[in-house]
Specification:
Layout: H1 11-21, E1 33-34, H2 37-47, E2 54-58, H3 64-71, E3 75-80, H4 83-96, E4 102-106, E5 122-126, H5 132-142, E6 148-154, H6 155-162, H7 172-180, E7 181-189, E8 194-195, E9 202-209, H8 219-231, H9 237-240, H10 242-245, H11 248-257, H12 271-278
Parallel strand pairs: 2-3, 2-5, 3-4, 5-6
Antiparallel strand pairs: 1-8, 6-9, 7-9
Helix pairs in contact: 2-3, 5-7, 6-7, 7-8, 8-12
The structure holds S-adenosylmethionine (SAM).
S-adenosylmethionine binds next to strand 1, helix 3 and strand 3.
Length: 305
C-alpha cells in the first residue's frame, strides 16, 4: 500500500530515498525496510504509547517506523549503526513531520550505555534479525527505565522469546527474557511489507517489564547457569551443570538444595528455579576487587544459543 495520505513512506518513497542515498540494503546489517503504512500503524497501535512518551528505536533505517512513532506524538531517540542512514534520518523526519521530537545516535546499539534526553520508557523497533536477541536483552539490561518493548523479529525468534517451559523451543532467549519481563507474541507480519522481502516470516513480540526473581544470586550467575544448562540440551541438569559446580556430585547436591530434580532438563525450568540453582554457586573470592566474582563473569554472551 502506498501511503500518500500521511507522512509514512510507501514503496516508491523507500526506493527513491534509497536511490538518492546510494543505499543498497545489506544482509549483514539486517536491512529490510518497511514500506507499508498499514503495518507501521499496526506496530504503533500495538505498542500502546502514551502521548509524548519517550521511545527508543533501534535501527530506524530510512525512517519507516520512526515516522509512524513521531506522527503518533512519541518523543523518539533512535540508534542507527549505518552512517549514511543515520546522517539522513533527522532530515527525513523533520521534512515529513514538522516539529517532531526526534534525535539520532550513530552507534552499534550493543555499544550504547547512555542515551540523550529523558530516559526512554518504551523500546519499539523492527530489529536487525542477526542481532535481535542480544540487542533486546542488552537494552533491557542497560535501560532500567524501559517498561515496555514491542519488537519485530524473525517469527521463529519471536516464538523462542515467548516460549514457556516444556516446549521444544524454550531455551536461552526465553529464560533470559523472562528475567526482565513477561513476553507474548503480538501478531505476524508478512514478507511483502519489506524491501527487500526477507526469506523468513516475521512476528511482533510484546514484553512488559517485571521485577526479576527475588534471589541472592547475581544476574550474571543466573545467566551462567542458564547458558550451561542449555549448552547441551539433551543432557540432564546434573551432567550439564557439572562444569559450573566442579563435578557431577557437586551439581547434584546443588540441584537438590535448590529443590530441582537432578535428572530434569533445562527446558523444563522457570527462571526462578535457575535463580535458586545459581544461589548454590560457591562464593569465589573477589580477587580483582571489582565486585564481580569469577563465577559471575562466566557468561556475557547473552542471547547466544
Ligand atoms: N526501522 C526500519 C524499518 O522498519 O524499515 C529499518 C529496520 S531494518 C530491519 C534494521 C535496521 O537496523 C537497519 O537500518 C540497520 O542499518 C540497523 N542496524 C543493524 N545492526 C544494528 C546495530 N547493531 N545497532 C543499531 N542499528 C543496527
Amino acid at each position: 500500500m502506498n501511503d500518500t495520505s500521511s507522512a509514512l513512506l510507501g514503496p516508491a518513497e523507500i526506493r527513491d530515498l534509497a536511490g538518492r542515498l546510494g543505499v543498497r540494503p545489506t544482509k549483514t546489517l539486517g536491512q529490510n525496510f518497511l514500506h507499508d503504512g498499514g503495518t507501521v500503524r499496526k506496530i504503533v497501535r500495538t505498542a500502546g504509547l502514551r502521548p509524548g512518551e519517550r521511545v527508543v528505536e533501534v535501527g530506524p533505517g530510512l525512517g519507516s517506523l520512526t515516522l509512524g512513532l513521531v506522527e503518533a506524538g512519541a518523543s523518539v531517540v533512535a540508534i542507527e549503526i549505518d552512517p549514511v542512514l543515520a546522517g539522513q534520518i533527522a532530515d527525513t523526519v523533520r521534512t515529513r513531520v514538522p516539529g517532531a521530537d526526534f534525535e539520532v545516535v550513530l552507534s552499534d546499539a550493543l555499544d550504547v550505555t547512555t542515551l540523550p534526553g529523558e530516559p526512554p520508557t518504551a523500546l519499539v523497533a523492527n530489529l536487525p534479525y542477526n542481532v535481535a536477541v542480544p540487542v533486546l536483552l542488552t537494552m533491557l539490561q542497560r535501560f532500567a527505565s524501559l517498561e515496555r518493548v514491542l519488537v519485530m523479529v524473525q517469527a521463529e525468534v519471536a516464538d523462542r522469546i515467548a516460549a514457556v517451559p516444556g516446549s521444544k523451543i524454550y531455551g536461552i532467549p526465553s529464560v533470559k527474557a523472562a528475567w526482565y519481563a513477561s513476553a507474548r507474541r503480538a501478531g505476524t507480519i508478512g514478507r511483502n511489507v519489506f524491501w527487500p522481502a526477507p526469506n523468513v516470516d516475521s512476528a511482533l513480540v510484546y514484553l512488559e517489564r517485571r521485577d526479576p526473581p527475588s534471589t541472592t544470586a547475581s544476574r550474571e550467575q543466573v545467566f551462567a547457569v542458564v547458558d550451561a544448562a542449555f549448552a547441551q540440551r539433551r543432557k540432564t541438569l546434573r551432567a550439564a551443570l557439572s562444569g559450573v559446580f566442579g563435578s557431577g556430585a557437586a551439581a547434584e547436591d546443588a540441584l537438590r538444595a535448590a529443590r530441582v530434580d537432578p535428572g530434569a532438563r533445562g527446558e523444563t525450568l522457570v527462571v526462578e528455579q535457575f535463580a535458586r540453582i545459581a544461589e548454590q554457586l560457591p562464593d569465589l573470592p573477589d580477587t580483582a576487587g571489582t565486585g564481580v566474582t569469577p563465577a559471575s563473569g562466566i557468561a556475557e554472551q547473552e542471547g547466544d544459543e
